[in-house]
Each structure stands twice: as structure tokens, then as C-alpha cells.
Specification:
The protein has 224 residues and is mostly helical. It contains 10 helices and no strands.
Length: 224
């Protein structure tokens, strides 16, 4: 890909990113990880680079209206941008399809190797310690709690949460991503990160639960 082409795509991406957890640095990390994964695969690198740079350009739209799927709308916006800037229809359509299937959705799994690599690179950014950090940012921005309390006053580990919480997100999404990668390279990279996430969440839960159990018991002794 020529530098001028890369700059065109990059500048468009930069003009669209306004979500703290899905910012330009997330896009760059996805791009860099995709390039690492693609080293041992036969892929169209230009399509992959374009798809990585543009995959989250509709995040702002979804943030403003949760009913919008950023992958579906982003796919449309990316294709329109590419066609308006002289890219071949086949190229634009391939990029569109990669972006459309990069989100967790059973009905539309990625089909091409470029799409699978984008999917994997995007999911790697919610694995390990960095995934925990980004989730905390996202949940805070959405004004969602770290945890909810059980009927007995103890902290829920997330498995029984009704309202959204960080621990619920960990139990039902982050904890399960490690078996959902398409490429062997991505699986290896994710597995190397798994322990850091498990250790952090276990420690966070133990510390928060201790404050609600031992501390509450001590307080109750003083109230009569």
C-alpha cells in the first residue's frame, strides 16, 4: 500500500474516533496485531490494512444510539468512503465484508482470511490485562457499576447479575473469548494473556467481597 493511500485511510479513521475504549490507539493495536498474525497467512494485505483502519468508524454512532450495530453501519460507511475516493468496487466490497463480520455475531461469521484476521486482532484487544483495562474504561463511560450485591450482601462474581456490571461482562464475554479465535497465531497470543486477566479479576473480586463481608460484620456489631 502506498503511503498516500495509508494516510488517506488513517486520516479518515482519526476523524471518526471519539470513544475512549475504542479510540485511535485501539485501532492501531488491532492493525499491528493483524499484521503480526498475517505474516504466516496468504492474504491481501491492502484489504486487511484498510479493514483494520476503518473497522470502528461507526462506534460514535452506536455510542449515541445503542440500537445501531457499529459493524453493520461501519461496513456501509467504509465502502461508501472507499468508492468515493476511487477504490475499486471489488476492493471496497471486500473491506466492507471484513468490517461487517468483525463483531461477535453467530449469524455473520467471518468468511475470508482477511476477515478472520481482523476478527482475531480485534478480539485480542479484549484479552489479558489490556482487555480488562479497556472494559473498565467502557463500563465507567456507560456509568455501569463494577459489581452488584447478592441478597446476603456479598459481592456477586457476575454469574447471577441482572443489571450490567464489570464482573458480569467478565463472566459472560471476556472469560470466554479465548476459545473463539480463527487463527493459530491469535490463539497463541491470547493464551499468553489469559492468566493476567484471571489473576486480576480474582484479586479484584476477593478484595471487594472482603470489604463487604468482614467490614460489614464489624459495623453491625456497633449498630444496635
Amino acid at each position: 500500500m502506498k503511503k498516500e493511500t495509508f494516510a488517506l485511510l488513517e486520516n479518515h479513521m482519526l476523524s471518526c474516533m471519539q470513544d475512549a475504549a475504542h479510540d485511535k490507539d485501539h485501532v492501531y493495536r488491532v492493525l499491528y496485531m493483524a499484521m503480526e498474525i498475517a505474516e504466516n497467512e496468504t492474504v491481501n494485505k491492502d484489504v486487511l490494512i484498510a479493514a483494520c483502519l476503518l473497522h470502528d468508524i461507526a462506534r460514535k454512532d452506536q455510542l449515541e444510539n445503542p440500537a445501531i450495530c457499529h459493524a453493520a453501519l461501519g461496513a456501509e460507511k467504509a465502502e461508501a468512503f472507499l468508492l468515493a475516493n476511487g477504490f475499486a468496487p471489488g476492493f471496497a466490497a471486500h473491506v466492507r465484508n471484513c468490517i461487517y463480520t468483525h463483531r461477535f455475531r453467530k449469524a455473520s461469521p467471518p468468511a475470508t482470511m482477511e476477515a478472520k484476521i481482523l476478527f482475531d486482532a480485534d478480539k485480542l484487544d479484549v484479552a489479558g490485562a489490556i482487555g480488562i483495562a479497556r472494559t473498565l474504561l467502557y463500563r465507567a463511560d456507560a456509568k455501569e457499576p463494577l459489581y452488584t450485591l447478592m441478597a446476603d450482601g456479598s459481592v456477586s462474581d457476575g454469574t447471577g447479575d441482572a443489571p450490567p456490571s464489570f464482573f458480569h461482562e467478565y463472566q459472560f464475554k471476556l472469560k470466554n473469548i479465548y476459545d473463539r479465535f480463527y487463527t493459530e497465531k491469535a490463539r497463541q497470543l491470547a493464551e499468553a494473556r489469559r492468566q493476567a486477566a484471571e489473576d486480576f479479576c480474582r484479586s479484584l473480586y476477593e478484595e471487594m467481597n472482603a470489604a463487604h463481608t468482614a467490614g460489614r460484620t464489624a459495623l453491625n456489631k456497633e449498630i444496635f
